[in-house]
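Narrative of accomplishments. A recurring question from our advisory board has been how the design workflow behaves on a single, concrete structure rather than in aggregate. To address it, we present the structure tokens for one chain from the evaluation set, followed by the sequence designed for it. No filtering or post-editing was applied between the two.
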């Protein structure tokens, strides 16, 4: 697998474009930019109402997107890919549920007609993402899907935990208490808005100040760099530890973790989801910052992605 950052070109024409029609204003950003595709699919989650959902739905209808229920998305995409050759597929993960992203990565990784995928991510404005992350509810933790449960290895091998730290309170602490890892790597995003990293470091100061934790900074604007950092860490530490990646924070880190987990190596890590179950009682609208992060992922080393 190869991951290459590319400049986003809003005039590029795709065969298939997948995004989300949700309550976050950010979810319709590509549609508002007028990005074109022969088939445009917007996933709609059950029970989505309020905030920017109605205006997003109107935008998708005006731009001739097909709105697809979450339970039908994978089958609809599989039908589009059936018999396709050299299909240009673009997936916007910005407002997707993490399990949907996991299912999409599994589908494209295993599908014989998909060799190259372009992923895009629209960073959020700090104020709105901080309010959304601050919502506190009971959490659950476990493999995000069975495909990403990792390699079954001897329980005598110590656990190594890789966490993506965000502004969500208590998630990393609860997971550490649950797993009691022997080694901990903490990834913290850096972006153009310095408030994010400052607040994350402050919120998790007790964790980052521990001797077991190795802090790692990553650039939210480079999927390639995040993937390379995680892939190198998994390669070097995978023989000594049973590795588990728990990506909170920006979804681009979660996407990179899933791409690493999609490699079917003998020491592949488990990818866990740590989050709330069910609908959020008081969701927060999240607005896009205005830039679009884009990367081309080549799923086979035998394919030319140029």
């Amino acid at each position: 697998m190869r991951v290459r950052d590319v400049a986003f070109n809003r005039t590029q024409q795709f065969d298939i474009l997948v995004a989300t029609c949700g309550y976050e204003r950010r979810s319709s950003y590509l549609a508002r930019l007028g990005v074109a595709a022969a088939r445009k699919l917007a996933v709609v989650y059950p029970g989505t109402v309020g905030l920017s959902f109605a205006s997003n739905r109107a935008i998708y209808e005006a731009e001739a997107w097909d709105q697809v229920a979450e339970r039908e998305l994978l089958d609809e995409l599989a039908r589009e890919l059936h018999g396709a050759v050299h299909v240009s597929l673009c997936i916007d993960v910005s407002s997707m549920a993490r399990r949907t992203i996991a299912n999409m990565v599994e589908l494209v990784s295993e599908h014989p007609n998909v060799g190259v995928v372009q992923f895009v991510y629209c960073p959020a404005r700090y104020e709105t993402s901080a309010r959304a992350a601050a919502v506190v509810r009971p959490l659950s933790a476990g493999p995000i899907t069975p495909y990403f449960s990792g390699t079954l290895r001897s329980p005598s091998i110590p656990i190594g935990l890789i966490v993506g730290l965000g502004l969500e309170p208590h998630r990393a602490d609860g997971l550490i208490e649950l797993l009691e890892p022997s080694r901990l790597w903490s990834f913290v995003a850096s972006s153009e808005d310095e408030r994010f990293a400052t607040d994350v470091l402050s919120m998790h100061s007790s964790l980052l100040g521990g001797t077991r934790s190795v802090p790692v900074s990553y650039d939210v604007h480079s999927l390639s760099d995040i993937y390379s950092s995680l892939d190198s860490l998994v390669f070097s530490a995978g023989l000594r530890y049973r590795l588990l990646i728990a990506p909170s924070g920006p979804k681009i880190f979660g996407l990179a973790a899933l791409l690493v987990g999609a490699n079917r190596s003998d020491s592949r890590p488990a990818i866990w989801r740590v989050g709330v179950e069910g609908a959020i009682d008081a969701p927060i609208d999240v607005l896009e910052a205005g830039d679009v992060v884009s990367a081309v992922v080549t799923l086979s080393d035998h394919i030319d992605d140029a």
